[in-house]
């Protein structure tokens, strides 16, 4: 996809959703970091069911350490991989206290040293908590980037680099949210809702359906 088309693609998603936000429940950078760590291989909905009570008990690294691994595990036991995640949440809380004065660092390299925090998690935290124009490529964005021709790539990092290169600066900060919500609710994995898709005329997916459904928001090519 060329840059002009990519700009139009993002403009259309932005028009549809002027103020996109993460669907994860959080109250400060620390709870956002914990929520994103817990969301690995789990749904935001599932994470949001567990975190309000966890964050009521512990919304800072110090309180999380005080809570201890067994109680953290108890709060998050409905989330997949909860054993490992409880260990990681406790360990990252200790590191934040020992090395960062109890604060979440606004720095990719430092974030990626924390247990359970990879490039994608660091990108979400930098974007949502610190307003940086990072693009975290999850399964939805990876699919949308490849399927639409917006940023084809073999790995999430390839797609991230492609999106960085093609999305104009003015859309970069919101791009993560727009693309993730588009992938989650419209450009779905098994049955993309092409008939109700605002970027259908721009999408380069060879198998996109040409049928325009009588659905709110459907647009002619
Ligand atoms: S037209 Fe279909 S394949 Fe293309 S972005 Fe929209 S939903 Fe996805």
Average predicted local confidence, pLDDT: 92
Q: Strand content of the residues, in percent?
A: under 5%
Q: Percent helix among the residues?
A: 55-70%
What is the strand tally? 0
Bound molecules: iron/sulfur cluster
- Would you list the SSEs in sequence order as H and E? HHHHHHHHHHH
Helix/strand/pairing class, anyone?
mainly alpha
Poorly predicted regions = 212-221
Q: For the terminal residues, how far apart are their CA atoms?
A: 17 Å
Number of helices: 11
Could you say which overall geometry the principal axes of the C-alpha atoms support?
Answer: elongated
> Main sheet, how many strands, which sense, barrel?
none
Topology:
Layout: H1 3-16, H2 29-38, H3 44-57, H4 61-67, H5 69-75, H6 82-100, H7 108-111, H8 119-128, H9 139-148, H10 156-166, H11 169-185
Helix pairs in contact: 1-11, 2-8, 4-6, 5-6, 9-10, 9-11
The chain binds iron/sulfur cluster.
Provide a compact summary of the structure.
The protein is mainly alpha-helical. It has 11 helices and no strands.
